[in-house]
Amino acid sequence: MESTDTLLSNVTLALTGTDANGHAVSATTVTNASGQYSFNNLLSGNYVITETQPTGYGEGIDTLGSQGGSLGAQDVIKATLAAGQNGIGNNFGEVTKGCIDVLTFNDTNGTGTFQAGETGHAGMSVTLISLGSSGVFGSSTNTVVQTVTTGADGTYDFNNLAAGKYAVEVCSPTTSGLSFTTPSAVSGTAGYWGQNQNCWDGNTSNNPGSTDICYKATNPSTGSSSGTGLLIGDWNENGNSSGGEHTIYCSVSQAQAILASSDNGDARYGVAKEAITGWLNYLQTGTCDATTKADINTAVQWLCQHSSNQTTDWSGNGSLTLNADSHQVAYSSSDWHSTTGTYSGYGSGGFGCGGSSGSYTDGQTVADNLHNDNSENCNVQLVNVTAGPCATVNVGVQSVINSAACIEGTVFLDANGNGVLSAGEKGEGGVTVTLLEMSGSGHCDTTVATTTTDANGVYSFENLAAGQYQVTYSNPPSGYAFDQNNTGNGTAGYWYNHSSLWNGTGSGNICYSVTDPVSHSTGTGGILIGDFSHNGTGSGENVIYYSNAEIQSILGASTSTGTSDARYIVAKDVISEWMNTLQTGTCTSQQQTDISNAITWLQQHTPNENYSGSGDGNLTLSASSYACSTSSTAWSGSSYNSNCGKTIDGSLNNDITHTSVTQTLTVDAGQCTTNNVGVVQVTGPGCQSTNYWQSNTSIWDGVHSGNICYSVSDASAGGKPSLLIGDWNADGKTGSGESTICLSATEAQQILGCTSTDARVTVEKQLVTSWLNVLDGNSSSQTQSDINNAITWLKCNTGNGSGDAYADTSHQMSTTSTCFSTTVGTNPDAAHSGADYGQAIFNALNYYNTTGAGIAHDATGALSGDVVSLVGLQQYQSNFMHH
């Protein structure tokens, strides 16, 4: 007893025993104000002093007095008293008990911390667990003290607790629609076990209480039982696979590596992580429900079936040797998605998969089922109770509805090509947006929802659980592609606006050190296009070198048809394609062919050959006598390898442009993630005039090689090379929903050269020109509408309904005819429906063939091109506003 101790009054004590004369003795007393007590006038004898434990105090240390004897149970002193002896100092020590105040609250702001204004949540199950001598949650020394339910105000107080370590476990029914916002101190997830290795690494010295949930198991590869590891599936915990058990052994270091690793595209990692997590949860709690046990067994069997030399994959070679194992399972494979099959026993002597053959299910289901088993249903907080003020445990909850996340955004016409939604840029409707959720293995497999953007380009997915998702955007407007970079499909505009990815000045750049073929210096930045071996020198390969400055200049150069050197068009696209191969680390045979063709074509039309980039600067395009016009045969006629520049660039453009883009997004509880995606008009080789197509029939007559035309099998073609105008799916036939006009190549040539004043023929001439420009890679949704309108109008104004006005000489139409130039009726759209207004249709097609832009609003809402120069357009402007 110390001078600072508190002396307790009114504590009851009892004396029992037998004196020296054999008489029974029994007496009681209470302590005085000074905490003292005494039993007087006693004969020698054997006595027992028993204290009645005072309310509100815990057991302290009792002290045997001067008379001798021994300490009995708690609060009991056995005294042996001699004749004439006084027994002094028989003291009973008490300690003030501790307490825990628990609050479960509605976490309206999702911070996990109780704040002013937030209310309690009633009806939550709360279990108090004494951790016992180990001090470790989940060990055999844990005992349940009490299970209660929080009151109307969300509170419950645990009082009169002995000092020590406790766990407060708050659980929510799975049907409650609640999720915990306060982080749990003990969580049975892969992340938890990866961060708390000291609980299971077999090293008791680094774990409070000197306990560890792992035990020694036999390594089936070496036969050694000296080390600690995980023998997953060893349900009787004897350290061996026996009694038909299917097991996989994993050393502690290998388990740690698997929990911390990325999967490198191997789906087995996802299953292995969940199997290790489930097994550690079982070892920690000592219990496993039938569903989880079955899921762990299935995971073991699936891993056995999909691993070579199974008994050494984990124990002998580490981490399932996933990087090198020929049994890797891709997330796109049927073994992951849908296949079920059979497994056979592996190993010998009861180790390995063991047991007899059986069936397994697909890996995705295996991983997802285990992930659900391992997910948190309860929140555990660890508390150290001491005498004095109560410990406080606050656990926040939030309804799934209130904590729901969302993904929203806009698909927009990216007028400035910077990939960012800017002021004045308009949304694009009708684009398909598909949302996929990440599975338990961290890969997207399940489609959550699919929607289309509204008239303003807006889309949204509501009431989502927090986590990772993938969003796929597809079906852009005809003639447009996504300019947000879908890895490996960056356009020239994308690479121009993202120079930090390739300029070699920052970390994570896709470029590598190359040798300038003129100065022979290395590490100066730039790209060596055609260096497919990536050795930086292009040794033995046909290459072109561009410095960083030249790349930026070429990518940003104007390539408007008729105003610039056509070599810029090819250079811009071959640079973009090379960047894409560097980004993905792969180059298909088609890409390699297209890049090689472009290099050779540029060298043929640039002085100083493969030194053109570095020696003459920007290919000396602005001043070189080698400048290539888009009307030259080098561009549109026969050139390198019977391929003109236009054909080579068209193939490159097909590689680069993309009609879908997929992006991974992370959403937080209660938050909306905004993701905007831009579309840009696909740059085709450039629209050409009627005279151009009349003078260059070899490009489209269906006879010469490299033609832009395709085989037409429609009955109206009669087996001849033909144009099937309006065949938008390019299958050579007039399909369901299509309206077409079929012209043989000879008829088309005659129409292009015709000087007839028949108003219908003027429209037909523009129609043939437009269709050839479409076949040449210059299409848009506006153009498709105008061509369809022309087909309908011509069919309405030809005697046999064929639409071939040139052949229908008996129904010629004057340009002053009301069918061509006069408004009929009050509906402003009647002109563009095809029934009337041939002049309006002529104007639209002529504008497209002249500029390649079509009649369309640009990002600011104005009409593209020189509106004033359009003959008669002002009269019909209200009709075109619907494009």
Total E-strand runs: 33
Largest sheet: 5 strands, antiparallel
Percent strand: 15-25%
The averaged pLDDT comes out at 74
Shape: elongated
Helix content: 10-25%
Give the uncertain stretches in residue-range form: 309-324, 342-357, 440-444, 559-563, 609-623, 824-836, 854-883
Oligomer: single chain
**What strand order characterises the main sheet?**
2-1-3-6-5
What is the count of DSSP helices, taking H or I runs of 4+ residues? 21
**Structural class label:** alpha+beta
Total domains: 6
**How many angstroms separate the termini?**
96 Å
Radius of gyration from the CA trace?
Answer: 42 Å
Structure described in brief:
With 883 residues, this protein is an alpha+beta fold. The protein is 24% helix and 21% strand.
Description of the molecule:
The protein has 883 residues and is an alpha+beta fold. It folds into 6 domains: 12-95, Sandwich (Immunoglobulin-like); 97-187 and 378-399, Immunoglobulin-like; 190-374, no CATH class; 407-467 and 665-674, no CATH class; 492-656, no CATH class; 690-880, no CATH class. Helices cover 24% and strands 21% of the residues. The protein is built from 21 helices and 33 strands. α10 (566-584) runs parallel beside α14 (645-656) and α17 runs parallel beside α20. The chain is elongated. Residues 309-324, 342-357, 440-444, 559-563, 609-623, 824-836 and 854-883 have low confidence and may be disordered.
